[in-house]
Amino acid sequence: MNITVIGTGYVGLVSGICYAELGHHVVCVDKDLSKVEILRNGGIPIYEPGLQELSAKNTAAGRLSFTGDLRQAVGQADIVIIAVGTPSLPNGEANLSYIDQAAVEIAQAMNGYKIIAVKSTVPVGTNERVANLIRSWTSERFDSISLPEFLREGSAVQDTLHPDRIVIGADSQEAADTMAELHKPLTDQIVVTDIRSAEMLKYASNAFLATKISFINEIANICEKVGADVTRVAEGMGYDKRIGHAFLKAGIGYGGSCFPKDTRALIQIAGNVDYEFKLLRAVVEVNQDQRMSVIRKLETIFDGELSGKTIAVWGLAFKPNTDDVRESPAVEIIQYLVRSGARVKAYDPIAMQNFKTMHGDNGVMWCDDALEAATGADALCLLTEWEEFVRVDLGQLQSLLRKPILIDGRNVFKEEDLADTAFIYFSIGRPRLNQGIKEEMSALNG
Ligand SMILES: NC(=O)c1ccc[n+]([C@@H]2O[C@H](COP(=O)([O-])OP(=O)(O)OC[C@H]3O[C@@H](n4cnc5c(N)ncnc54)[C@H](O)[C@@H]3O)[C@@H](O)[C@H]2O)c1
Ligand SMILES: O=c1ccn([C@@H]2O[C@H](COP(=O)(O)OP(=O)(O)O[C@H]3O[C@H](CO)[C@@H](O)[C@H](O)[C@H]3O)[C@@H](O)[C@H]2O)c(=O)[nH]1
């Protein structure tokens, strides 16, 4: 098959490279020519484990190429996949301007029958909108396919080559069969449905996972008050096959380019048909508040006074193994600390440059390694569970901090890790591990 993918963000790039890996001829198009340049030179504009090697292999095999020339790339395609961004508008609705623009550009480049698949996450009805737009520009035949993507950043290659399922929304049996054939080497679990159900299925999946996270975070908050351990609670719950272990890790809430925007968009999708999605509104509200749990703990420790304190921050990415800082909890936490007059020393193994580019310097002191950030700090907040943080020598860390205060926003340390240390340690929903009772704090503050 000749496949053209529009957009070389996470989804376009990873899926394009993986279709090439399956033996298809793939052209990835981006209007951002600086990305095309990086890709053509063998680079990858995002940090995603395993992607560079796969890209190099398939480019060398002559199956994969990158271009800014959408017209030519569409002209030679049997299947065109739209994978452009659908960011939030100020009211939470999905911004469809990139989708619309891509649709018009595809229409103008049509030179015969093609399948046009939308991989971007789009509100119900968007595939029809795309089809109508294309029809208004060209009389060439085409079939629309909704092809929602379920990859996770940080494990995107694995997720794409070994997906739990492929969802194909179609109103043409022939086009659905072609798409099923294309994805057959990846999984037997291919769900073929109508287009609107496929569009809804994507939002429902993300909203459900976000709900699990907010649920366990609320359980964690109650655990803190009643003396229970949320990690044991989640473990025990997870053995129930109807519940499962996944997405029950309590922490500082979900971030990233998908859950926050897609939960907001689904609330709007419901609102547009006069349905108030009360449960999802609460999920979003809980998530927003959860970010502040780190701040609340710091304020308790320092008697409400963060001004003049030096706070080390470990982790800026919204999760490990990615350089993505879009809607990362670290953004609001750092901004709050800076506003409160604290001096912030921050470190992330991969995401520091992205953070500076997107959110500016913020008066933060950027550090070259984790221990440099911790040195001389009055407290350390761990916000992303990067492996190098999990493996830190806690004895050495303790000796470098001015005060041995550790706020673990991701519950990475266990009781035995802390046993021989004098850390004043706070995590999420594990009050028995919260070392550092009020008297110790008074002594420290005094
Ligand atoms: N990031 C993820 O992990 C993920 C996973 C599943 C689904 N999604 C969904 O996939 C979509 C894309 O997400 P992303 O994170 O890959 O996006 P992104 O914003 O990182 O990248 C989109 C790319 O498309 C390019 N683009 C926009 N309009 C174009 C046009 N007309 N012609 C050529 N290129 C164009 C942009 O320059 C950009 O490089 C979104 O709807 C998102 O919700 C994302
Ligand atoms: O138990 C958990 C699991 C995740 N998270 C947080 O949730 C966010 C999202 O994590 P994850 O889902 O792993 O990352 P994404 O790359 O955003 O992937 C989600 O969003 C994508 C875009 O729609 C979908 O394709 C994926 O299926 C969906 O998992 C991160 O901030 C995590 O720290 C938790 O707090 N607790």
From TrEMBL:
UniProt keyword list: NAD, Oxidoreductase
Pathway linked to the protein: Nucleotide-sugar biosynthesis; UDP-alpha-D-glucuronate biosynthesis; UDP-alpha-D-glucuronate from UDP-alpha-D-glucose: step 1/1
The protein's Enzyme Commission number: 1.1.1.22
Residue span(s) of domain UDP-glucose/GDP-mannose dehydrogenase C-terminal: 312-415
Annotated transmembrane regions: none
Pfam family, one: UDPG_MGDP_dh
Domain of life: Bacteria
Catalytic activity as recorded in UniProt: UDP-alpha-D-glucose + 2 NAD(+) + H2O = UDP-alpha-D-glucuronate + 2 NADH + 3 H(+)
UniProt family annotation: Belongs to the UDP-glucose/GDP-mannose dehydrogenase family.
Designated name of the protein: UDP-glucose 6-dehydrogenase
